[in-house]
Each structure stands twice: as C-alpha cells, then as structure tokens.
Batch of 3 targets.
Target 1
Amino acid sequence: MQSRVKWLDNLSFVGESGSGHSVVMDGSVEHGGRDLGVRPMEMVLLGLGGCSSIDVILMLKKARQDVTDCQVLVEADRADAVPAVFTRVALKFVIEGRNLSTKQVERVVALSVEKYCSVTKMLEGSVDISFETEIVDIADS
C-alpha cells in the first residue's frame, strides 16, 4: 500500500492514495492554514469510522440483515501537550434497517471494534476506545 502527500502552499496538502483518490488537508487558520480541507487528525477519525463501517456492513449483509443505513458518530479527546495524540475515542454506531436482530447487530459492531478493524487495532494500545450501538427499525414503506 502506498500513498503520497504533496504540499500545495501555506499549510495545504493533497493526499493521494495508492488507489487513485485524493483528499485536501489543511491546517487551521490560527496555525497559518486557510481551512481549505480536513485536518490530518480528523482523517484518522474518519479512517477509524470508515474502516469499522465497512466491517459492519459486510458482516450484516453476510448475516442477511436488511440494513438501510449505517452511521458512526466519532467523538475524541486529545492530549493538551504536544504531541496532541488522541486519549479517548467514542464510537456510536447508528444502524437502520428492517427487522434487524439486536443481538446480531451488537455482535457485529463488537467484532468490528474489538477484533477486525485495522485502525482500531493500531490505536487500541494508546487510546481508550469505547463504542455503543443504536438500532433504528424502520417500517416497510
């Protein structure tokens, strides 16, 4: 796996993934950036939410659950000192669907966070990671 980060100007950078996708990153105005893109530490949280969401959707589809939506709300705290690493990350999975099995959804979320998500595994030794699940059962339309 490869990627490249290229400096544009000020504190703006473009990240290019090995799969051919790009994202703009920028620093905050108070640090000299222009607020034109996502902060690098926000990218870590997005990666965590995305990685775990992929696991959850794949496992729920394999279990033949009728999932119509999946969101992960990610909240994090950072250390006050430099480096300002994450000290706590809380994930709230909001899974929507028809006739979802509460037991199955909760099991899948736990498996993702505790076993399969690569980003969680990278962070778990240094960050307190917690998670919860909310299931929204929608009526057939």
Note: The first helix runs from residue 40 to 62.
Target 2
Amino acid sequence: MTPLQPVILSGGAGTRLWPLSREAYPKQFLPLTGQHSMLQETVCRLDGLTQEHPDQALDLRDPLVVCNEGHRFLVAEQLRLINRRPLAIVLEPRGRNTAPALTLAAHVALRAGDDPVLLVMPADHCIRDARAFRTAVAAASLLAAEGAVVTFGILPSKPETGYGYIRRGRPLDRGDLMVGAFQLAGFVEKPDAATADTYLACGDYLWNSGLFVLRASVWLGLIERFRTDIAQAVARAIETARQDGEFLRLDTEIFSACPPDSIDYAVMEPLARLAQQEEERVNLPPPLVMPLEVGWSDVGAWSALWEVREQDESGNVLDGDAFVHHAQDNLLIAKHRMVAAIGVKDLIVVETADAVLVASKDAAQEVKAVTQFLQSQQREEHIQHQCVHRPWGEYESIRRGTRYQVKRLTVKPGESLSLQMHHHRAEHWIIVSGTARVTRGDETFLLTENQSTYIPVGVKHRLENPGRIPLELIEVQSGSYLGEDDILRFEDRYNRDPSEPARG
C-alpha cells in the first residue's frame, strides 16, 4: 500500500474577497462555492478515492493542516463539523509562505514511521469535477511513490494574465503505459495580455495550480539542497515544538527566524532548471507536470467567484436577498439586507453588516486597495466581521455609544469563557435562551431564560454553558473604556496566549 498524506495549506488572507473575507476569518473558512467552506470542500474532495481506484493500493491518511495560529480554532471546528479527525494541525506563529509550511508538514508526516506521498493542496481553491481530480491524484501518486515530483497544470480556457504558467516538455516515456504526464520544462511569471494569447495558442503552457504530489523525504532532500537556511530553521522549530491538545505549537522566536519563500521559488524553479542539464538529471528526482481539466479556480477575486458560481439566464449570480431587473453579468451578495440592481452590467455588489463593496468586474483585482486603506487608517473592518468567532462560540456587536455597548453572545454547549476580570467596564447579562452557569466572585449560580445578572467592575467572573443547546444572551457593557483588550484572564481552557485578541 502506498500511504497518501493530504497536506492542506491554510495560510491565505483572501484580501481580494473583502468584505466577506477578513484577516480573522479569511476565504478558506467561507462557504463561497457550495454548502461547505472551502477548507471543508478541500478535505471532502478526496472522498471515494480508494474505492474508485482499488488497483492503485492507496492508503489515504487523515488530513494534515498547516495554518495560522490565530485560525486554529476555526480549523478544528470546521473539521469537527464534517466529522474529520486530522493527523495534526500545525500552527505557524508567523506566516512564512508555502515552502516552510510544506517543510513542517513533511517532518510531521515522517513521524508516523513511513515515508508517505504528500498531496499538497491550498485550502482556498475550487475544483468542480472532484471525481476527475481524484483520478489524476491516483495517477500522480504512483509517479510520486517512485520518486518523482509532480505538479498539476491547469489546461487554460482563456488568455489569463492573473496566473503564473508552467511550460510542459516532452511526454513522459513509460513504454506502453500512458500516464498523461510531461517533463516540466519551466515556470513563467504572470504574462501580459499579448503573451497570454501566444501561450494559449501554443498549447504547451498550463496555469500554475499550486498543487503538488511528492514523497515527504523527497521534499526534505530538495529543500535541504536548494534552501538550506529554510531546512535548518524548520528543523529547529520542529525540535522544540510542543503538543497542545490537537495542535502542534512552534516556538515563535525560532520559527520567525525562518526565511519566507514559496514552493515554486524555493524548489520547483531551480529543480526544473537543473533537470534540463543532462549531467545533473541523474541525481535529481524528475520534475513532472500533469495537465488537469477539472473546473479549477483559485477564487482569487470576485470576478473569479462569478465565473464558478451558477448564473441565471442573464449571467447574474445572486446570493441572499438580491433582486435584478434589466441587469446582466453581475455578482450580488446580500448577507443582511436586500440588495437590488437595475440596468447595470458587470458589477460586483457585496453587502455585509458593516461594509458594502461596489466594483466593476474589470477592477476586481484592485479590492486589496480597500484593505490597505483600512489598515492605514487603523480601522478594523479588514480584520474582523461584526460577528466575531471564538473557540467557545461567537459574539456580535449590536449597538455602541458613549460609555456603553450592546452585544449578542452565543456559547456552544459544554463550552466556557475564561475566568476573567475587567478594569474599566461593568457588564449586565440577560439570558435569551439556554442555561448559563455564572461565576461571580466567590459565588456560582444558574440562570435560565429571561433571567439576568450584573458583573461589577473589577470582579472575577466566568460564563459557561452546561446545557445541550446553545446559550444565547444579551450583554450590555458600561464604563469608561470598552475595548476588547480590557481583560485579565486567570484560567482559560483553550490555552490562549495573553497577547491574543481578547473577549472571553
């Protein structure tokens, strides 16, 4: 049996999909293309692989996820919701791009005692034909098991200028066995429109998908050869890593010293160049590319989402309470209010509780300018949604004024906020539904629907949900300072660092 280890890289920020995608809740955690989030779709995409290809003798392992430390509870919760137990959730205290992330994953995968084939997948891509993708993965896994480094190149459907390209070389010679792979001749940066036209006409250029299949030991050998500094820095980080429940934590200072780089720049491009030299080829794992036609998109902009979503007879994509009249080829997303568009074409309109985006589809790549502006003004609309997720549940700001703020809190069954204290604010809690166990100073008591309590300034307190249904309550804060950093934690079941965003 060939062990196949899915590696999911979940480090993207998705700034071009603002205002739905935000730093604290980026696009991989959103259900943009289906019922499940993009992360969940990535995990479920492999369902049926071993049944559909029993002759390949593949042993499909539980997924291994590498993610931003601040997203760890989102990853764990989304996997739990689809009943998946990960092999590991590796936490990056600082983003260092995909080459260090894959190096981390390769070390963790090798700890199992074998040398699995790694299937490396970004968490935020869309693939509409999952069955065809599984067939390609099965074929690529056989080549990778023999030592090859395989990447997938997407057959281009248009002269796209937003993607990098892969140039394929001669077909792989395997005698009578047709495997559909080619020698990888090189990588090309994003072209201008005229060059993209020539690539499409040539037929030898494929979109760079960011998908890879190779053995863990092969990757570690390549990163050691081409980027020794990354290899050594990650090895030090793994040596000092510690297990925290289902999470593998890295030392912040040690991992932050690792140079950032992508898989392509660090390894794939120098590997492709050396493979063209006959004297070097014998000592290298062969770099291969397999053409893929599976309805792939990296959903890197609102225009890309419009392309992959189902459209009405006029080319409009409507999500939520949206209405169009004499309108064509628009994307309308309404999350909290009705959105209507009349007599317009090629527009993007995205409505959320605290922000509205209106843009031309041609300018979809420029949405990042909004997040840069928000950052320069030290605002928070690029960081958090109005509804903020926490490991115990979520809270949403309903109203804010001078010296007061009203929030709605939802605490999941069996979960608990930390034992905490505030220096500048008092809190009133009104139970809407469910049962609350409240610790206030030296007393502990239960509250049920329509009951309430008061937490004075400077008093230790905790809120728990001992029941089997979600606990819903309204919190009214009052005081001289209402910032989320006015919190002192004494006990926290989630082992959150004191420097993390607060609020429970």
Note: The chain has a mean pLDDT of 93.
Target 3
Amino acid sequence: MNNIQFSRRTVAAVATWAAASVAAPALWAQPRLEKTKIAIAVGGKAAFDNLPLTIAEQLGYFKAEGLDVDITDFAAGSQAVAAFESGLVDVVSDAYEHTITLQSKGQNFQAFVLQGRAPAIAIGISVKTMPNYKTIADLKGKKIGVSALDSSTHRVAQLILSRAGLKADDVSFVGVGTAAGALTAFRAGQIDALSTVDPVLTLLERKGEIRIIADTRTLKGTAEVFGGVMPAACLYAPLDFVKKSPNTVQALTNAIVHSLKWLQTAGPSDIIKVVPEAYLLRDRAVYLAAFNKVREAISPDGLIPEEGPQTVARALARFDPAVKLNHIDLAKTYTNAFAIKAKARFNAAGPVTRPTPELMIDA
C-alpha cells in the first residue's frame, strides 16, 4: 500500500514538473545569469523611443528572462549617463550616439540592442512667439527648449542650426524635459522653439500651437536630416560588462526583442492597456495618433543597421570638436551578436544584419 502511494506521489510530481517545463521552456533552458538584479537608467522613459523598455517591464518580459530590473527615469540621456558614472546603474537606455561621445572621452560603452531606428525627434517653432517665421535663420537670438543639455534633442537641434549656418551660441538652449515641463514652458512663451519627442509634439500639433520645421519621426525625414539611417534609442553598457556578463546581456536583449515583436502587431487598445496612464498626457487619442506617427521609427528586430554608426559619427563631428572621426573605433560602440540570437528566438521581423564589422571609421 505504501509503495502504491509513493508511486502515485512520484507520478504526480513528475507530471507537475513536466507541465511547468512545457509552460516555461525559456526558464528551464536559460543559461545561468552572471547578474540577475540590474539597474537601468533611462532618459525620458515616457517617450516613444523608450517604449520597448516600458513594454518589457509592464508585460513581465524581464522577469521571464530571470531578471530583476529596476528602472530609474531621468529627464534626458545625459543625466542617465551621469547616473551610471556615479555608480548608480548598470545599463543605460538612451540614444546610441552616447557610446560615441563617451568613447571620445576615453570611456568604452557598447550598445547591444536597438529600440529605435530613427531619433523620432522633431523641431517646431511657436506660432505665438514667432508668427512671422520663414527660415531657420530666424531662430538666431531665440530660446530653444530641449530635454536637457547634451541630450539627443539638444544635438539634433544643433545639427539643424549648423546646416543653416548658425552656431550653438547664436541661440539659447533651455532644458525643459520631455513631457509636462516641455508643454508648460512652450505654452507659457518661455521658449520660442522646441526640440522634443512625442506624444508632446502631436499634442501641440493638434492644438495648432507648433509649426514643425524639421522632423525625424519617419525614416524618410531622418534620411533628409542626417543623410542616412540613424540608430537611436538602445540599451548600452560598459564594454567590460558586456564581455564579462554575456548571459545577462542576452537576457536583457531577449526581453527588448520580445517587446519589439509584440509591438509589430499591437493594436491601439493593446497599447493603451499596457502603458502607464501618466504617459497618455490625459488624452488617449493624441497618444495613439502620436504612436502611429512614430511606429516605423521603432526597430523591428533590435539590430543596429551596419551603416548607421557612421551616420551618427559624422553628424556628431559637425558640431562636437571632441568627436574626431579618425579616432573613433565604431566596432567597440555596438554589437549585433545578442540581437541576432534574440531575433531568431522570437522570429522578429526585419532583414538579417551581419555581425559588427571590425574596422575604424574613415576620416
């Protein structure tokens, strides 16, 4: 009798184990992570360029990979980088360009999964304070709002100005954040123009308060501004961390690519259910309209396009004297090794990109 009871308990235990294995194959097959608790700093978490990060957090994709992720939000990427330099975080979620500017300062960081294949930043002028605007040259002497100094919104504005023959000190840049702060400053007339991201842009457009003069929310607009593809938001970390913690980096990449896969087919109601209420700026219709505008800017598979890093480096060199093209080793600033594996695992859409080329950028 005891043997029969033992047998039944054994069978039940085996059945339970088997069911769990089928329900969570990734968990059972997952290699041991070098580090499970990860702190991530993000520059403007509510912005669409970091939406895949939010999706991964909200839908439990990080947890599914065995990660305990703590995300801290900052007004801009430059502040997120500062948080890392202070030893507060392990990984940064922000624009790829920071890996190049950091290398120019002697710090090697590597991007390992792409969230945005276009900056999704636009510059617009206030129809209230600049009703007679005609050309970019009219911005001379004006105040331009950016998320923060040394941020992506700041750099895009600098590039646009440089192509019109204006220098950075021909205008005044004001840090206003990317959400409520930007709206308040713009509507109060504290700034004459704004370089920012959605959903703020679409909200101001719908109200007729802003006139867009340069737009990188689409691939076409990005090519017009930068002359090529421009990888934007990504996850990046110190090169040593990437090399020493490949399983952890792969897990982070898997979670983001899983999000990208989900976003490819997500409908309006899906998006609204997942993103935090605060992201909607009290207007769901505007948020969804903004999402439709930037949807093609979201990476389909997490891969950094091969020609993208050179486009970024050349754009930075136009106005940042610290970025010397013949001294930048682009092969150290990004890798597609992890994204290629995640793409195959989740069958994410998008063309296969070859691994990072081992070359120095031409001067």
Note: Residues 121-215 form a domain with the D-Maltodextrin-Binding Protein; domain 2 fold (CATH 3.40.190.10).
